[in-house]
Amino acid sequence: MATITVLFLSCRGQKSRQPDIRLLEETLMHLCQPGFEGREAGSRQDSILALSIARRMEEYGFEPIFEEGPLHRFRVRDMESYNVVMILRGAENAGSVMIGAHYDHLGMGGQGSGSLRPDTLAIHPGADDNASGVAAAMETARLLAGRAGRGKMGKDIIFAAFGAEEKGTLGSAKLADTLAKLELLPSLMINLDMVGRLRDSVLQVSGTGTFEQADSLLTACLDGSMPLVLKTSPGGYGPSDHSVFYRHRVPVLFFSTDAHTDYHTPFDTPDKINFQGLEHIVSYAVSVAGAVAREGFDPVYRETAQPESSMERAAFKVSLGVIPDFTYEGEGFCAGTIIKGRPSDKAGMQDGDVVIQINDRPVKDINEYMDILGELEKGQRIRIIVRRNDALHHLVVQL
Q1: What CATH number did the domain enclosing 381 receive?
Q2: What is the pTM of this model?
């Protein structure tokens, strides 16, 4: 009860300085401008876009977290992209809160891009996915910096704009690995992905089961000035950047206003953004992040159930129950996480196994794995050869 009271008082004291809807509109329109051609990771505009985000965050008082500067460059196979990673210092050794959103989208679309209109070559603006999240994350960070100026935050605030999310959460995976090696993983990661289409005031918040007293925190920070209705779920996994941090045992919260018929099409345009709703979501994100950033509340990690891979569930008749390791660059298909109780787990597959053959067909990469998976039927028994620590293992999987 005492902790809940502290949370309530922390959130109640955070009403000053409201979000600037003009800045939200300006940021979103900047990200969606035709010159960026849909913000595809690895494109010629990628570094220019990342640098423009970094410069604005510098104006808000954030500084690079890494010595090489605000752009965290990474390469996966033949693609090079960036994370923008900056920090607002709080109390020393008190932990940090990360506010994150991916800035990339699908570029011009086309076959293999992820577009739901693959036969249409046109700019995919990605106003909701995820210019809305970047605009919200930047405005949340700006407001938190203003509060820190009036009294230093207990924890650091880390701002992260991730590259290559649409290619498989590549940027956030590289950043999480880097921060883990440096022992700089955040105390809490708040992910804003598709928050621009608030309907009926419903804000979806996932991750309530990933740390103790998450529900109390969310309830305490929602006051009458925020016309939001929360729809919560406990899971920490999912097809966005928070999932890779959760795999590193970081508590997470995932804010979203859910998918719509314009998702991954050229019709996800700025004119369909609910900016007033976005303003309310920013107010709420500031309240939640600010409460955690104050000294006295440290999220305690909890494990939640792993769902089957959404990629497999959406596209195929069968699922092995594997979350791919999208950062893997070698030959074969690397299983990043094996979901307990699913066919792969029952067959004896382990995290990090590299699938090199299914039945009589070699698996050269993730694309070939997906092609084979699409041809399988429920009830089949298949033979899989995996490479594990330089040894080959022959497994039988019942689908």
Answers
A1: 2.30.42.10
A2: 0.78
